[in-house]
Amino acid sequence: MTNLSTIAGIKAFGPSGLERLISELGEPRYRAHQIVRWLYGKGAGSWDEMTDVPASLRQRLSDRYTLPVPTLLDRQVSAVDGTRKYLWGLGDGATVESVGLPTPERLTVCFSTQAGCGMGCSFCATGAGGLKRNLAVGEIVDQVRLVGEDFGSRVSNAVAMGQGEPFANYDAVMGALRLMNSPDGLGIGARHLTVSTCGLVPGIQRLSGEPEQFTLAISLHSAVQETRDELMPGVKASDLHQLRAAIVDYTAATGRRVSLEYALMAGVTDTPKQIDSLRNFARGLLCHVNLIPLNPVAHSRHSPASTKRAAEIVRLLDKSGTEATIRTERGADIDAACGQLSQKHVGN
Ligand code: SF4
């Protein structure tokens, strides 16, 4: 795996790593907070801008670390709903995508946690290109910061639902969420920060022990083992039985509801057998089911379920005591909707 500190410089460090670094340099802890404020709160692009940090410390830091900022390579704006999709270039030439989803009350940013993804989900454009590398802490935070800057407004919510499996890059993702949550960083409330995993059980177990109230979303997509293995081959090691047990433990430990993401694929995940299994899986769990109308992905063998069937599924889940909603998809005209990221960039 690439040495991230060579590529990301100072942005390879999370909040605790920065504190360690500052104390190794014999400086007081509050200097780390100042640097976080400059890097993420104010978006400094050079050490010289950090005017309240002593020049001698700035010099020592700049001798050791670069201070890279992602380069905007492409930006598309949806004519339908104002959703914006961004393509960022990183220090080593890797590229990642993020999406900004505005409403009158909120600005939500969907960010990437890896360049590419190794999970190979069959319905996802990103999965088709494989994993290039993990992102560093600051490469994750900068996506959210820069999208907020582009909209000229505060980011109210951020979701790790872009490229990558967040729990396959656990430590960097936690460091990034902490910087997004920190008043020195982006100041986004912990409950408004969501990690979306394809269901890696060790990651769910670790998250349940974290002190912050980050929100957890799990891509279920099928509660039939054989179908799930086919759709999401990268997560075979954590079977449905283990996954459900991990969700039970997580909700017991945190008291927080999880969101189960379920993509409706005609004839694959919307059949009576599949929906019975989904109802059994969700019954009694502290959860909410998010039904996702499948989006067109080039060369995909899956097609969306009908709106009539989706509404029926909501009713069936409701009957068995599980709250469910159909997600409104946004940005489909610019390939910014779920599962579409990287559609135009696979192979880059
Ligand atoms: S759906 Fe998520 S976990 Fe699966 S391949 Fe795509 S980015 Fe990776």
Give a structural overview.
With 348 residues, the chain is an alpha/beta fold. It has 2 domains: 4-64, DNA polymerase, domain 1 (Orthogonal Bundle); 71-334, TIM Barrel. It is 34% helix and 18% strand. The chain has 11 helices and 12 strands. The protein has helices spanning 4-8, 15-24, 30-41, 55-64, 137-151, 170-181, 201-208, 225-231, 240-254, 272-282, 307-319, and strands spanning 71-77, 84-89, 95-102, 107-110, 114-116, 131-134, 157-160, 193-197, 215-219, 258-264, 287-293, 323-326. The protein has a 10-stranded mixed β-sheet, with helices on one face. Strand 2 and strand 3 (95-102) form a beta hairpin. Helix 2 (15-24) crosses helix 3 (30-41) and helix 5 packs parallel to helix 6. The longest helix has 15 residues, at 137-151. Bound molecules: iron/sulfur cluster. Iron/sulfur cluster is lined by residues 117, 119-121, 124, 126-127, 163-165, 198.
Distance between the termini: 19 Å
Small molecules held by this entry: iron/sulfur cluster
- The CATH architecture of the largest domain is Alpha-Beta Barrel
| Largest β-sheet summary | 10 strands, mixed
Strand order of the largest sheet: 1-2-3-4-7-8-9-10-11-12
N to C succession of SSEs: HHHHEEEEEEHEHEHEHHEHEHE
Helix content: 25-40%
Radius of gyration over C-alpha positions, nearest whole angstrom: 20 Å
State the CATH topology of the largest domain: TIM Barrel
What is the structural class? Answer: alpha/beta
Q: What is the CATH C-level name of the largest domain?
A: Alpha Beta
Return residue spans where pLDDT drops below 50 for at least 5 consecutive residues: 343-348
How many beta strands in the DSSP annotation?
A: 12
Shape: globular
Number of domains: 2
What average pLDDT do the residues reach? 92
The CATH fourth-level homologous superfamily of the largest domain: Aldolase class I
Discrete helix count: 11
Strand fraction: 15-25%
